[in-house]
Every structure is written in structure tokens, then in C-alpha cells.
Amino acid sequence: MHPIVAYRPILSPAMIFTPLGPDFPEDLINDLLEGDVVFLCGAGVSAPQLPNFQNLVEQVYARLGEERTPAEEYAFSVFRFEEALGALARRLVRADDVIDATAQILQIPAEPDIAHHAVILRLSRDQIGRPALVTTNFDTLFERSLMQSRSPEFAVDESAAGQDIPAPGSSRFHGIVHLHGRLADPQLGLPQTELVLTSAQYGEAYLRAGWAARFLFDLTRCRTLILVGYTASDAPVRYILNVLEGDRERFSDLRKVYALSSTNGNAETAAAPWRALAVEPLLFQPGEGDPYGPLWTSLGQLADLVENPDAWRRNTIARVAAVAVAEAIEHDRRALKWALSGRSDLFEHFVDHCADPDWFETVAVEMKAFGNRAMAWMLARWFARAWSDGRRFATAMKYVDQRLGSLSEALWGELDRNGPLNEVWNKAWHLLADSAADRLHSSVDDFQLRHRLNRPFITESDLGRLVEAIGPRLQIERSLRDEEPPEEPDKLADIARFSMEAERQNILGDVLTSPAGEAANVVRLLQRASERLVSVLRTARDADLIGESRDTTDWGVPSVTRHQQNAHRGGFVPLTELITSALPMAAQVAPAMVRRLVSGWAAEGFNLLTRLWMHGLTLPTLYSPDDALDSLVTSDDTAFWSFAQEFVAITRTQLAGASAEAVARLAERVMTEGPLRYAAEQDEQGDVDWQARARDREIWLRLTAIGEQVPLPDAAAALLEEIRTRRDYLARQIDDRDQFRGWTSGVRAVRGRTAQLVSAQPSERLSIADELDVSRDIEDREGWPEYCREDPVGALAALRARPLELALAPRWRTWLQIVPFRREEANEKTLTAIQHAIDLLDGGASPEFFATLSDPLASIVERANTLGLNVPNTWWDRLWPAAEAEPAPEWGDEWELYERVVNSTGGALAEALLQALNDQREGGQDSHVEDLARLDRMITSESYAGTMARGACVRYLGFVFSVSPQIVQDHLRPYMSAEDENGVRLRAVLVEYNSFTAEAETAFSDLILQGIRESRQKNVSAANAASHLVRAIVASFENPDVPRGITRQQARQALRSASSDIRTGALTIMASWLEEFDEPAREAAWLDLYGPAFAAIWPRDRAYLSNEVSKEIVALAAATGGAFAAAVATLLPYVSVFTDDWINLHDLTRDNYLLAAGHPNSALDLLWAACRPPCNGRSSDINPLLNAIMASSPGLAVDRRVHKLRLRAVNY
User: Fold this and answer.
1) Are 1019 and 892 found together in one domain?
2) Are both 129 and 181 inside the same structural domain?
3) Residue-number span of the structural domain to which 1165 is assigned
């Protein structure tokens, strides 16, 4: 069995019919269906019953009893068989003896095998189904096949030979065309014609008279050719393709030429001679027992397709779509894609048989060819086949997220026709359809809206679009649970995760600074925003985000007004802030109308609207002080007791001007209802009296808020004093944090309540912390972590009051989380407390206790030098065994090694050790022997900690190599060279995070190159990986005498083998480094360094052109400064037409279109290369660029490229 060697020279979509068969490009299959393909058949088609050219020559010599002369032997040895026969004919007395011998040798057997000929005749037909093929064979086996399938008369009529052959493209061009002549066939009554056999006859046909050359030239202008039965060295091939190669240079309308050929075990070697002749090889692998079996089996199946494409498509769709994508072989995937391409009528058939939602991703291109509407309707039809299938719902979520147009309409159509029977599934699908409708927008729409909002007159519809853009949308995502949703779910959360997210709030900026926020528009804007908020709150209620016991929309808005606590939040925050920001001006413009609007919020029954109503009570233009307080006093329990910030805001803005009676009524309600709060929930928490503390806190906050503005009634003042005496941590004024249910500080989330811990004695604090841990209130449960952050010294005192027992380890772990990353993040008291803790743990902690805290203690070791802490040298040796004992977590789909390194115990200890070695070097010391032993120990550890440590060492490989080349080469390199997943991860760290000295680059060039080839990173990480190639080659031009580890040839080959993201990353890094030069220096940098580097490493094959490459090439050209013209001349061949809908040419517009003005011709050349037809994209940059070009070079105004480029322009 021959080895199968991967070979994929065909870059267009292709199909394969058998595992060992050739790849047939889809374009070729389409040409076959159109009748635009002609097979050009050689001797291999008739083998083995008739000889090939080489065997024919040998048999002619044998039949004539002649020996080859030295000249004939030379021609024979270099496979120029026609020259050998020509020399033989010239020395024979009767030259025709060669022809006669050939005719006798090529006599058709009594029972010929015409199976191969029949297959080719099924394929090589014209548009109306007549056979149309060309052969250089002299035999009449094709005619015998026609005789068998049709009749002898038909076979004779369809046979043409020699100079009587029909002209390609004419109505007579059909049948079997014997280009080099035909032998007689007595059974059919066909006479023999002149043959093209010897070198003289080839010269006559192709050179002197040239009739065969003209025939082939005309044929390739109107038909695609497939060569079969030839090798690349056969005489007919050499003459034929040399003719076509010369014509192809001068005539662009010549069609493609393909050749069916065997790999003979090495695909690249087999393809090379064909590709040298500008022929696209269609290679098949030799079959076991029958080397040509895969070819003829494939051609037979291809003939089945061509003869009845509809049946073939339907059978293929039904067969392939019924299995899972993961189980389908590659050629079946391709077959399905082709079966569906261009046939919208077959997608219903596909939907009927599709078993796996991943098929829709596979055939997305074919579906989208009919437009998003058709794709949406087909998807909806498939969803409707099994509404309760979780995979179908997940697929629908994916396409909603991709904003597939018309999906909402299609879903509604199917839901109306035959919706789910299960109520929960029905609700979920209806919400998904709503979500799909709400997510349709484009960046161009936002761009246009932003411009319109800056005009004096703003339409009502644009105000509607504005609040839709700012407001949240229903987001439906896969559940965090791995299991599939049940067929009979109890609630929506069993199916998916529902949330309300704002996606576009930052696109439009602060709209109130635009004309939309001016007096003429602000009331309309407020009304629109209010309507939108009510609408999305109702949607949230439908999605079970608002219920009797919870309201995620309310909790997601810390403050209805702009506040630091709202920072980095989406959801309802942007729309709520817009409403409260617009409210004051709107109240000035139309107070009566706005008051009606605000009053209506209270009646909707949503917490968020209730809070907005309470915010409205703070505005004196809408409510008098007494009106505001009376509204508050008569509000329901939720409004009065749940929203502290709004309550405090009303008292601070309205209380000072209110009557004594109104104040008394407010205080009276607090005193009357406050003591009864939480009465129904008594004893639920055992001995922990959380109800009393919560009750006191709520009364305290409200009475304190009143007392800040006016004197409290005596009874209220007495109650407040009683609470402050009982809870000394409430003996203070209201802090901003007291008004919020949760508090976010930096990256640390919920703020716990710490008052009880602050006021307790150190010996009591841990007991109180234990009580808070079992509270129902999350703020209580977060009390100890928050206290550790607020008062590290006090928390440490509490910890020191108890012995270092294992039960106390969780408390210590929480306290150790306070250790900052940088010294400036902590005060001296905190750092002193941390040092005291280090000293305490070092002397008093048991090995088990110490091991339990290995991860936070490892972080202290890592940061000790930065924080100025004194950590004993023995800690590394005490912590490393504990790190080695940690279990290895599952990798799952995670791939990034270094992200794990920086968050692991092993990684922290490794980086601490490397820091110690670096400190020794900077202090002028040799590396300590014990530290080198530790380095060796962690690198060779087979634990998860060892994996993390190796990741850290590879991250700083240049430094580690300089410390101990031997440890790296003997122990670390084998792990880096491994072909398992860990080896791949280490090589990824090597190339994505490092920069190397020339010595390290030389030592590890093989691994660097391998890591670059393997990397599948994108964006910045891809650019980092590619930078090693660019740096090495630029350095080789800058300092040619300094050897580098990566040669130009290696860099070029690595780029060819790497992913497309690595190649674009190389261009990105070149542009970035060029931009680091001062403007005057960029020209020399490009001409002397980066231009030569690009020419040295960038692949020249067209296969590497792409839309992303073109964008980066344009950016690179723009970064070359004064060398722009020279750069464009170099880079232009690598620019292909942009395929994006929206074209960004910002790089060319910088510095007031300096490049366009300074190099108009080059700028126009670059624009044309990127935006010429068939580009369909639009850009607002094109017209300004063209204007700058015209201003600099008015003569270019008549250039037709300018007129065509303006068709791609958009003006705003």
C-alpha cells in the first residue's frame, strides 16, 4: 500500500468521491454540468490492453528487427520517443514501415475492455449531451464504446481524425476527435488517416503547418481541458502544453487545464512537473492491488453526478445530513456543500434530514448565497421540527447573536403556524424571536445616527433609535450548566440564561450634550426613553428576571443617577442615567407634562420605575416639599423601606422646606412601622439575631437622614439614641456606602457589613465572624472579608487571639488576600501587619497549617521583594512540596498556559525564585548554588506545579538560559521539544510572550520556529509570535556581521507554514515598529531595514493573499513616511481587493492626508489595488483621499480609476 501524502494545491472548494481519489474543484464540476469540459485522452486510457508510447517504440523496433543507434538510444533514454521513431524512419529504406508496424501493434483485441472509455464518454459531452472528446490515441476504442452504447452508424458519424477535425466552438464540434490521426477499423468501416507519430510529423502539426496548435488554442478558449492517460513527460503533453503556455501569456481568456495523475506515493513530487507546465494536477493515491482503481471509481461516481445531478444531490443530502458533522468524513462534507450550492429548492430537503445543528455552520456559505432571508427561513423551519430540542434552541441563540437578518420574522412565522406545546418552551422561543428582532443593527446605522443627532432638527424616529441603542436588550445565552435542557422544563432558567444587556450605549456618547439634549428635544427624548424603559422592563418580567422574590433589573442599577457605583455597568444603567439626566431640563421646559410622566412611573409596579418616581420627588420644579414628603409617606412598603438612596435623596432636597406637620408624619411612619420590620422572620436563624440588627439599621438610616436636615420629634430622637447606644457602630452620620445594597471598590466586589467587627474586642471578632457567616444577608456574610480589607491590623489582632489550628486556616486565607501587588497600594501599617503575620506563621505554624495556605503564602514570596517584606529563605523549600501535592485541574477547552501560571502556586514560586536569581545578578553576585538546585528541582518536577514552573521559566527563557545554559538545555529543552499538548503549550509561551537575545535565539531557533508554526493565536499574541521572525531578519540587515539564529529562508518558510493570523501579525509588527521612528527616520528605516526584510521573508505565492493581509499591507505602507512611494511599489502586488462591507482607510488619512498629497500617484495606485472592482465595500475616507490626490496632482482627475473609486465613497 502506498503511503498517503497530504496534497492540497487546489485552493478553491473541491470534492472528493473516494478516499484515495482526486479532488475535483467545484468550478470544474460546474463546467462539466454545463457541457464546457473536453477530455484530452492519452495512451493510459487504453492500458494495459494496448501499449503506452514507450512500449510502442520498443515493440516497433522488435517487429522491424532493428537495434537503436546511439542517437536513437539517447532520445529513447530521455523519453523523447517521437525523436527515436523519427530517426528510425529516416534511416529506413521505407519510412512507412514505422507506421505499418505501429498499426499492427495497435490492433484492437477481439474482446476489448472499454469500461474506461465508456466512463469518459459519459463525462466529456457538450451542452446538448453529445460526446465531445479529443484523443491523441490512434485506436478506435472510443468508437467501439459508442457502437456498444448506441450503434455502429452513430460511432462512425461521431469519429473525426487528422486535418478533417471540426473547429472548436463551431456547431460541428462534437464526437471523438483523433488529433494525431486514426487507425483503420474494419469492423466499423473507418479508414486509416495520416498519423502524427514521429518528430517530423509533430513538427509539421505543431510548428510548420501548425494546424494542431491552432486547434488547441481555439479549444482552450472555449472549453476547459482535462488530460487523462498521460504523464507530464509524454510527447503529446510537451507539444500541447508548450503551445498553450505561450498563448496563455498573451491571451487572458484561455480556460484552465487539469491533469489526472497518480501521486506514486509522493504528491509533491508528482505535482511539480504538471505545475511547471501551468497545469492543475488532480492527483489520486494508488489503490492496493489496482493502482488506478481510485481514479476510475471516482470518475464513475463523477459521471453519476453529471448525468443526473438532481438525484445525486438529493441522495447526498439525505445520506450526509443524517449523520453528525463530527462523524462525517471530509469528502462527504464537501459533497453536501456542493449539493446545496446554488439550489435553494433543496434546502427544504436538507432541513428534513438534518440531524446535527453544526451542519448549518458547515453550509453557511451556501445558505447565505441566497441571502439572509432564505437562510433565516430555513433555520426556522428546522427549529420547528423539534421545538423542545435543546440543541436547536442553542443553534437559534447562536444565529440571534450573529444578528442574522429576517430570523425574527421567520421564527414568528413558524411559531404562529405550529408553536411548541410545552408552555415554557413556547415562552422561550417567543422571547428568542423578540430578541432577534431587537438586535438587528449595524455599525453603519450607529455612525449615521450619530451624525444626524448633531443636526439642529431631530426627527421623532431618530429619538426612538437613540433610546433603543442606549437601552438594554434581552440577551439569551447557554446555561452555565453543561447538561442539555429537559424536554419538559419547569422554568426558563432550565433552558437558557436570560439577561438584559446594553451593547451600544457607548457608541453615541453623551447625547445630552448634542442637540438631542437641548430644550427643543429633551421632553420628547424623555418620553421616548420612558416608553423604552417600560417596554424592556415588561420584557424582563416575561423572561422571569422580575418575580415576586427577586428583581435583577433593580439590583443591576446601584444608583438611578450617575454615580461611581454605576461605572462599567451595562444593563438598565445607561437608559436609567439618561432619564435622570434629562429630567431636570425637561421639568423646566414642561413641568406639568413631566409630572404626569413621573407620577405614571409609580403605577407600573416595577422597582426600577418606583425608584425613578422617588428621584422625581427630589425636583422642586415638579413637587413642593410637602407634596414630595406626603407622596413618600403614603407610598407602599417597598418604596418606603427598600430604597435607601432615594429616601435619603428626598430628605436632603425637600425636607428643609417642608412643614413641621409633614416632617412629623414622615417620622411617625418610621417609628410606627420600623419596629415591626422582619417580625414574621423571627427565629429562622437560631441564635443569630440578624432581624434585630437589620431592623435597627433601617430605622437608624431613615431617622438619621431626617435629623440631618431638621430637628427630630422627641420620640424619634429618643428611638434613634436608643439604637445608637445599642449598636455603637451606628453612632455616626450616614456614609455614602450606607445607601447602597452592595458596594464595588475597584476589582473587589460586594462590600460586607463590618460595624459589629469594628466595635468588638479582638478576642470576640472571630466569634462574630462565625455568626455573620450563617446570615441570610449577603452583606453580613461578606463582613469578615471586608473587615480584613478595611482594618488589616484589627483583623490580624483577632487572628492572633487564637492558636494556629487547621480550623482557623480559612480565616487566615481570607486575611492573606489583602497582600497588595505593589507597595504604593498599601500603607505602612498594612505592610507592618503583613510582616508580623509572616513572622508569626514562620515560627508557629505546623507543616499541615503551612501547606494549607500554600497558594496565598506563595504569592507573598513572589511579591516580597516588591513590597519590601522579609520572607525567610526556608519558605520556598517549605512551600514547594505543598505546591507539588496540589491536584492538577482539568484543562477542558482552556489552552493558555501562562494565564494559569500567573494564578498558580507553582507559578508564583517559580517567579519568586527567578526574581531572587535576578536580584543576585543585579547585586553583582554569582547565582546561589541552592537556588540553582531549586531551579533544577522545579523544572524536572512531574507535578502540576512543575508544569506551571516550566511555563514561568519559558516565559523568561532568555534570562534563565543566561543563568544556567546547562539546566535549560539538559532539563527544560526536552519538555519544550515534546510533541504532546504540554510541549505545544510551552512553545506557545515561548513565542507569544518572549523577546530574545541573539544568543538565546540561536540556541532555541528550532523551537521558536516550531512554536510560530503551531501558534493559533490572533491579534496581539499573533503579532508577538511573528515579531521573532521580523526582529531576526531586520537585525540581519542592520548588523549583517552578527549571526542570528533564524535565517531569512527559515523565516520565509515559517511564515508560509504558519497560520494566516501569524502572517498578518508580522505585517502588524512591522508597521508598529516603523511608527516608533521619528517621521524623518522612517524613510531610511524602510529602505534599509524593513523593506528588505519584507522582501526576504514574505511569501510570494498568490495563495497567501487575503482581505486581512491587504488591510495590513495598506497600514504598513502608511507607516513608511517619506518612503511611501517606494513602499507602495514593493507592496502593491500583495494587495488584493477588500471584501469588507465597510472599508477603513484611516491609516492613509492621518496628518491631514499627508501621504495622499505628497505621493498622489502612489496613493491612487494603492487605493485602486484595494478598492477596485469587484470590491463592494463603502468608505467615508475615499472622497477626502481622492480630493487630496486631485489637489496635489490635478492631472489625475481624468484617470478613470478616480471615477470608479468614487462609486465606493460615502459622504457624511
Assistant:
1) no
2) yes
3) 1137-1212
Query: 575 with 553, same domain?
Result: yes
Q: How confident is the model at residue 11 (pLDDT cuts 50, 70, 90)?
A: very low
Question: Whole-angstrom Cα distance, residue 1075 to residue 1071?
Answer: 6
pLDDT at 628: 93
CB atoms within 10 A of CB 421: 10
User: Average per-residue pLDDT in the chain?
Assistant: 86
Q: Is residue 724 part of a domain?
A: no
Please tell me the distance from the alpha carbon of residue 774 to that of residue 374, in angstroms, as a whole number: 56
Q: Is residue 41 domain-shared with residue 89, that is, in the same domain?
A: no
pLDDT number for residue 864:
82
Q: What are phi and psi of 686, to 5 degrees?
A: 70, -125
Q: How far apart are CA 143 and CA 158, in angstroms?
A: 8
Structural domains in the chain (count): 8
Question: Whose CA is closest to 694, among 786, 803, 780, 811?
Answer: 780
- 66 by DSSP, 3-state: which? coil
Query: What tens digit of pLDDT does each residue of 718-774 get?
Result: 999 999 998 888 888 998 888 887 766 543 344 567 777 777 788 888 888 888 887
Same domain, 904 and 781: no
Query: On the CB side of 701, how many CA atoms lie within 13 Å of its CA?
Result: 22
CB of 408 closer than 8 Å to CB of 437: yes
SS3 227: strand
Is 379 among the domain residues?
yes
In this structure, the answer to whether residues 1041 and 963 fall within a common structural domain is no
- Tell me how far CA of residue 309 lies from CA of 24, 32, 33, 126, in angstroms: 15, 11, 8, 16
Residues 6 or more apart from 482 whose CB is under 8 A from it?
none
β-bridge pairing 497-501 and 473-477 = antiparallel
What pTM did the predictor assign? 0.54
Taking only the tens place, the pLDDT of each residue in 118-145 is 999 999 998 888 999 999 999 999 999 9
E-state strands within 189-344 = 224-228, 257-262, 280-284
Mean pLDDT of 672-689: 67
- Is 1130 within the bounds of a domain? no
Share of the chain above pLDDT 90, in %: 33
Kind and range of the H or E element at 501? strand 497-501
Q: How far apart are CA 1200 and CA 24, in angstroms?
A: 39
Number of Cα atoms under 13 Å in the Cβ half of residue 782: 16
Backbone angles phi, psi at 731, to 5 degrees: -80, 65
Query: Which of 438, 442, 407, 368 lies closest to 1178 in space, CA to CA?
Result: 442
Rounded to whole angstroms, the Cα distance separating 157 from 145 reads: 13
Q: Which residue has the cell 509570535?
A: 1025
Q: How far is CA 996 from the centre of its chain?
A: 29
∠ CA 165-171-172, nearest 5°, is 25
C-alpha cell of residue 618: 427630589
Q: Is the pLDDT of residue 1212 over 70?
A: no
- Residue ending a domain, among 597, 623, 649, is 623
DSSP string, 596-652: HHHHHHHTS--HHHHHHHHHHTT-TTT--HHHHHHHHHTS-HHHHHH-HHHHHHHHH
Q: Does residue 12 register a pLDDT over 60?
A: no
> Residue 467 is placed in which grid cell?
433610546
Share of the chain above pLDDT 70, in %: 93
Residue 663: closest CA among 612, 738, 717:
717
737 assigned to some structural domain: no
Q: Which residue from 1208, 1138, 1194, 1162 is spatially nearest to 1154, judged by alpha carbons? A: 1162
Identify whether residues 1052 and 987 lie together within a single domain. Answer: no
| Domain match, 284 and 173 both | yes
Distance of CA 37 to the CA centre of its chain: 39
| CB 22 within 8 Å of CB 260 | yes
pLDDT of 683: 47
Are 121 and 145 contacting, i.e. CB atoms less than 8 angstroms apart? yes
